[in-house]
Design brief:
alpha+beta; 4-stranded antiparallel sheet
Length: about 120
């Protein structure tokens, strides 16, 4: 039997929360995923359990978020990029980059490379 699915996406300040309005628990819609401001998707359910059209809309939203974030981030001065990334870097990356003896552009590159595939937004 196919599960009922009604896509709902809402921006709550820290990205986009993706829910299934067809399922409610304790007065809230069932969470499906979260899309960070930089386009990273954190899934709360298996993506294969989501109907194809809804999955495409979620992935499209993530792509648009990633593009907007990248445009915003690339327009920041390098010192602001560095500060932004330091505030979000995992502890080990933070400790390593603050001890590096190179220019800020290389530090930004190091942080971005270290966090590749992880949310920074």
């Amino acid at each position: 039997m196919e599960q009922k699915f009604e896509l709902f996406m809402g921006c709550l300040g820290n990205g986009t929360t993706v829910c299934n309005k067809a399922i409610e628990s304790h007065g809230e819609y069932a969470k499906v995923a979260h899309i960070s401001n930089d386009g990273h998707i954190a899934w709360y359910v298996e993506p294969t359990s989501i109907p194809g059209d809804a999955l495409l809309r979620i992935e499209h939203c993530a792509k648009v978020s990633a593009e907007k974030f990248q445009k915003w981030f690339s327009e920041l001065p390098v010192t602001s990029q560095y500060q932004y990334l330091l505030d979000r870097a995992p502890h080990q990356v933070f400790m390593t980059v603050t001890q590096m003896s190179c220019d800020i552009k290389n530090k930004v590159k190091y942080i971005l490379d270290s966090m590749h595939g992880k949310s920074i937004g």
